[in-house]
Amino acid sequence: MEKLGTLKVNSLSKGFGPKGQGLKVLDDVNLTVEPGEFISIVGQSGCGKTTFLRLVVGLESDYQGEILLDGKRLNGPDLERGVVFQDHRLLPWLTVEKNVGLGLKNAGKGEARRKVQEHIELVGLKGYEKHYPHQLSGGMSQRAAIARALVNRPQILMLDEPLGALDALTRMYMHQELERIWRQEGITMIMVTHDMDEAIFLSDRVVIMSSRPGTIKKIMPVKLARPRDRASIEFARIKEELLEEFHLHTETPFAYSI
After folding, report:
1. Run of H or E including 220
2. All domains of the chain, ordered by start, with CATH?
3. What is the pLDDT along the chain (258 residues), one digit of tens a residue?
4. Distance between the two ends of the chain, CA-based, in angstroms?
5. What distance in Å separates the CA atoms of residue 114 and residue 97, rounded to the nearest whole number?
6. Which of 13, 91, 187, 199 counts the highest number of beta carbons within 10 A?
7. Per DSSP, what are the bridge partners of residue 207?
8. Are strands 156-160 and 81-84 parallel, antiparallel or unpaired?
């Protein structure tokens, strides 16, 4: 993988309708993501979080402003940017190893086999290479989707609520796995989520978006040592601060200690 680049989003706006002048979804979004950062984007439904991810991935091209990676304007999808969706989108007629290897291009058979096996092991699916998606649990399917997105060694991995369909315990386990993969791979990750605990547990910074048209309301750094303790006073303080941005409060006010 080449040296990671800095992602810069400058004055990004996006509307739907004739010439983008209809429904405005994003308005003057400005964000810099440093190489190797883990960023989470939170906000109410309809504020443009997923649209933002689609623009960075290159699935949407009609917008105003700039999206730059290492100083170069992004134009369309590219192997430098991987994406994982809420539903795994594995092809049901292919095995895990065939699904993971789908995105490989310009690689010989031996190299492709090595990369596929390496990434299957990275996500903890060794031994399931020949299994089909219907033979996997939800968490295992998402692991396979993450392996498929990483096999080309992208600079940035975009995650659109990748754990939203999982049960609570599996989701917490996947938080640990996703953090492990991020630390091991050292790539930039940008995740859309509605889960405040998830955002705090995984992120270096949490980007809070306003209601439509979405713009960045606040960027909150998460200065907690890793691995993070959800039961700690510091974690609870950050969560309370994050909830206050949405005019939400815990039922029992948190008693801060000094």
Report:
1. strand 216-221
2. 1-80+157-232 (3.40.50.300), 89-153 (no CATH)
3. 457 889 999 999 998 876 556 688 999 999 999 999 999 999 988 888 999 999 999 888 889 999 999 999 988 888 889 999 888 899 999 999 999 998 786 667 788 889 999 999 999 999 999 999 999 999 999 999 999 999 988 999 999 998 888 888 989 999 999 999 999 999 999 999 999 999 999 999 999 999 878 899 999 999 999 999 999 999 999 999 999 988 776 554 444 332
4. 45
5. 11
6. 199
7. 41, 219
8. parallel
- Name the residue type at position 238: I
| Burial class of 163 by CB neighbour count within 10 A (0 to 12, 13 to 18, 19+) | buried
| pTM for this model (two decimals) | 0.90
Can you tell me which residue has the tokens 């890793």?
Answer: 226
